[in-house]
Design brief:
The complex is a heterodimer of chains A (125) and B (490). Chain A is mostly helical. Chain A has a domain of 70 residues: NADH:ubiquinone/plastoquinone oxidoreductase, chain 3 (Methane Monooxygenase Hydroxylase, Chain G, domain 1), CATH 1.20.58. In chain A, 66% of the residues lie in helices and 0% in strands. Chain B has a domain of 224 residues. Chain B is globular, with a radius of gyration of 21 Å. The interface between A and B is small, with 9 and 7 residues.
């Protein structure tokens, strides 16, 4: 068992160290690219993805908490009857209105303000 | 829920539906005037509906909300006193470059919180109301953060208010939890039973103390007052006025209902704590106002002092004799109304001279130099407000202070009344200092005093000044409606 472990580690070390001593080093532009013989990458991999945490929070409140409350309602749906149904309806309608408002405000538009501005510049109305 | 309960609840539903309707409308058309008119119509409709139902028997709707004459009185006051918040803001926002319509949603949510607070006699609705009110106020205080001419201190004020309000809410919630631990009930009246039975122990006392701290933050009583001047200064004038009037007055009315209905007001510890806070508020509020050159900060300190005066009437409301108790409660009610009306005049005048399009508000004392020569009517109206705040006869503030004095004398609170006299004398100095500044000869270069005053602003100034003088000259009508309002608490 222990011998096996030593062999595995030794093999890995040998495989990693072997090319370092045996191989020759060549310096050219293409070598350091991620895909040496494939699609040429464009731009940097370190660009910024807009993550509007504030909007995440709002959508979380709208959808997740809606699910939480509706789940509680679903357990007692027979007991609370029509009054409960109407109250749940009011709750859902208010959340839907909030969603509509957010949508019209452009909250579902997942771009930075800069990207929106650039787009607007490219396509004038 | 029966149909009668539903009908009684309609005004609250109207206020609640304003913000939903506004969201729907804003989704399709952004029309500033339309939005403000909808808000205005909602407040006035709810106010009139509740006013019509004054005098009807009390209705308990679910364990959370009670509609009796006391809550109806304060709901009516909230609805009508929010009208200036719409009108002043309409003018203020029209001249600024921020998003305009969202302000009215926040305002209607804040008013909903105030209305719920006025009608609550259960800790759950108490906490919901406080949170609705203060969470909307965070955003309102920081409303003017965009645009070219944004005010620098706005964001600071908003964050300060948010953190301190969050802290005070946690005190409130912990207090409620401790009270529940002791008594096992959450209704105010249920607690009264338990206190009479002698179940009060250290946990309950601690809970009541925590509640007092939480309420003290909202009312900016003295050890908890540090946020007040900064928030007043940073917020836009209409929001400052809303914060100074409705949000404080409703919390005070609720505090009166809680302390009275739960019987906690009769406890010696509570009275001692209130007296201590009251003395500090009166002295520190008036003392710090002396140093101020900034009018908004000055009004902030003056409001701290005013809520210190009110504590005298609050303590006197624990009197055993029914007449004295009624007198003290009338004093609280009258003082709150007089304070709201007067504060609206003062902030209306401030708003009349402000220039939101340049991000400037007329908050420095030197902006008022020579106002009597440039704009005699505005200066006269502002002087009425200041004199009413100081408690000079013929204004509402005098009758209110007189009432508080009578209530305190009936309960023989001589030490507190002595402090009241001393601090009123200090207060007179800084109110008169502003009037003196307005009387000085005008300087040549003073842009503040030249701009035309918008119609809405004039309307508010005239109506509210008329109220101040009317209440000061013939207070009888208000006293009668207060009589019926406090009867339910007796």
């Amino acid at each position: 068992m222990i011998l096996y472990l030593v062999l595995v580690v030794g093999l890995i070390i040998a495989m990693l160290a072997g090319p370092y001593f045996l191989g020759r080093r060549r310096v050219s532009r293409a070598v350091n690219e991620p895909y040496e013989c494939g699609i040429v990458p464009v731009g940097s991999a370190q660009y910024r993805v807009p993550i509007p945490f504030y909007l995440f929070a709002i959508f979380f409140v709208i959808f997740d908490l809606e699910a939480v409350f509706l789940y509680a309602w679903s357990v007692a749906v027979k007991e609370v009857g029509w009054a409960g149904f109407i109250e749940a309806l009011v709750f859902i309608v208010i959340l839907l209105v909030a969603l509509l408002y957010l949508w019209r405000m452009g909250a579902l538009d997942w771009r930075t303000t800069r990207q929106k501005r650039d787009r607007a510049r490219v396509q004038p109305r | 829920m029966t149909i009668e309960e539903l009908i009684a609840l309609v005004p609250l539903l109207v206020v609640a539906s304003i913000s939903v309707i506004l969201m729907l409308v804003v989704s399709f058309v952004r029309h500033h005037r339309l939005i403000s008119l909808i808000t205005l119509a909602g407040f006035i409709a709810a106010g009139i509906m509740v006013f019509q139902s004054m005098g009807q028997p009390a209705i308990q709707i679910t364990p959370l909300i009670i509609l009796d004459d006391f809550s109806r009185f304060f709901i009516v006051m909230t609805c009508f006193a929010s009208v200036p918040a719409v009108l002043l803001a309409y003018d203020y926002l029209r001249r600024s470059e921020d998003l305009k319509e969202e302000y009215y949603m926040l305002l209607s949510l804040a008013v909903l919180g105030a209305v719920v607070l006025a009608a609550s006699n259960h800790f759950a609705s108490f906490f919901i109301g406080v949170e609705l009110l203060s969470v909307s106020l965070f955003a309102m205080v920081g409303y003017m953060v965009h645009g070219e001419h944004k005010r620098v201190s706005t964001l600071e004020a908003s964050i300060k208010y948010m953190i301190l309000s969050g802290v005070s809410s946690s005190f409130l919630l912990f207090g409620v939890a401790l009270i529940y631990l002791n008594f096992g009930v959450l209704t105010f009246e249920g607690i009264q039973q338990k206190i009479l039975n002698g179940t009060l122990n250290g946990y309950g006392m601690m809970g009541i103390a925590m509640l007092l701290i939480g309420v003290g933050f909202k009312l900016s009583w003295v050890p908890f007052h540090m946020w007040t001047p900064d928030v007043y200064e940073g917020a836009p004038v209409p929001v400052t006025a809303f914060l100074a009037t409705i949000s404080k007055v409703i919390v005070f009315a609720l505090g009166l209902r809680f302390l009275h209905e739960s019987g906690a007001l009769g406890l010696f510890n509570v009275q001692a704590a209130l007296a201590f806070i009251g003395v500090l508020s009166m002295l520190v509020g008036n003392g710090l106002a002396l140093m101020q050159d900034n009018l908004k900060r000055l009004l902030a300190y003056s409001s701290i002092a005013h809520f210190g005066y009110l504590i005298i009437a609050l303590i006197a409301a624990s009197s055993a004799s029914a007449t004295n108790k009624a007198l003290a409660m009338e004093a609280v009610g009258f003082y709150l109304v007089a304070y709201v009306v007067t504060t609206w005049v003062a902030f209306g005048a401030l708003s009349a001279l402000s220039q939101p399009e340049h991000g400037i508000e007329a908050e420095n004392l030197k902006d008022y130099r020579g106002l009597f020569w440039q704009r005699p009517w505005l200066a006269a109206i502002f002087s009425v407000a200041l004199l009413s705040l100081a408690g000079v006869p013929l204004t509402a503030g005098f009758i209110a202070k007189f009432y508080v004095f009578a209530a305190g004398a009936s309960y023989t609170l001589w030490f507190l009344l002595g402090i009241l006299i001393i601090s009123s004398a200090i207060g007179l100095y800084y109110y008169l200092k502003v009037i003196m500044e307005m009387c000085k000869p005008a300087e040549d270069e003073n842009d503040f005093q030249k701009a035309a005053i918008p119609f809405e602003n004039k309307l508010i100034l005239l109506v509210m000044t008329a109220f101040v003088l009317y209440l000061g000259i013939s207070p009888q009508a208000l006293i009668e409606s207060l009589n019926s309002a406090i009867k339910v608490l007796m």
